[in-house]
């Protein structure tokens, strides 16, 4: 597609977006970081890095952008269902990884925010579908009833479908001051992370492995490097792709992301057996009841903790060439193994 044709597609989609979804024309202009959120203790440098402040500030920016991203128009029920799950809270880890990666590579929050929102839309889709009776059959997510328990299975499926489709449109329509070729790279990376080459492929092997004895560690790694890790990797790489980073930088960030992706899942498995529903905001112990292979079931709790720590250490080592610019991503890696939810 030539540049003029691509620009016409963006303009036409933008017009449709304003008419049908009620979004403002210049939404991206409101994604610039407010002055009161720029604090010395969240700037990488010699001073101690304050991760809670860094995460909290960017989480607030993401929440505000997500709130504006979808309006309730006719047919109201589908938009209400989409917003119900999209705005239900959570760590917003994937959007924050995208923003941090973009900033590390010389980009801005403004240029990355549409992609950050799209990543959360895709993640939310995966949660809605994962909670369905045909999948993990869960009643609670982020401390609230799951989407299908509120709106029914039919609406929940459609809400997930709508969020997935809208995510790609959102990137193309709302990203400003980024060359079209880079947007195509981001869309391709995200598509690859969601398809049978990523999230869907991991989910299929996960379903096929339920109840099986003697699952190999290679199979478990395949499940989670695809079901969980692929979208985390896309989150990190998309931020860098928006800046036009070269292959060497992309490779370093890819290695970082793959390591934290598996570490994230190991900790998830540990929390499933060591935490309560109130702590997690979702049903605890469901993997054991579903007879799913997990890292603790293969390695035990202590070895799982050791492996998670090893992966994070290796992830941080991949960022060493970036120096102080990588402090936020390094701190996020530490957060992944220290988290309790």
From TrEMBL:
Biological-process GO terms, alphabetical: terpenoid biosynthetic process
Keywords: Isoprene biosynthesis, Magnesium, Metal-binding, Transferase
InterPro entries to which the protein is assigned, alphabetical: GGPPSyn_CRT-like (IPR054848), Isoprenoid_synthase_dom_sf (IPR008949), Polyprenyl_synt (IPR000092), Polyprenyl_synt_CS (IPR033749), Prenyl_diphosphate_synthase (IPR053378)
UniProt keyword Hydrolase, yes or no: no
SUPFAM superfamilies: Terpenoid synthases (SSF48576)
Pathway noted in the entry: Isoprenoid biosynthesis; geranyl diphosphate biosynthesis; geranyl diphosphate from dimethylallyl diphosphate and isopentenyl diphosphate: step 1/1
GO-annotated molecular function: dimethylallyltranstransferase activity; metal ion binding
Reactions catalysed according to its record: isopentenyl diphosphate + dimethylallyl diphosphate = (2E)-geranyl diphosphate + diphosphate
Superkingdom of origin organism: Bacteria
EC identifiers of the protein: 2.5.1.1
Similarity section: Belongs to the FPP/GGPP synthase family.
Name of the molecule in the record: dimethylallyltranstransferase
UniProt organism field: Scytonema sp. PCC 10023
